Amino acid sequence: MTDLPEDTDAARIARLEEHVAHQAVTIEELSDQLAEQWRVVEQVRTKLDRLTERFLLLEEGAGEAPAITRPPHY
Question: Which H or E run includes 8?
Fold first, then answer.
């Protein structure tokens, strides 16, 4: 096994630190996007619940469907 010169080790460590810093920024950005998407999902869920309630109320108020009969020209 050969020993690496110190400047190569220092450069490698600097690259690794830079890589970790970029990953930390990426993780933070993804976390923010996930939180925003969760807020959107909650808004959509709330709207869907309201629309479902309205639909059920309209369906209850509609009464029975008219009987299916043949038109007079048959």
Answer: helix 6-61
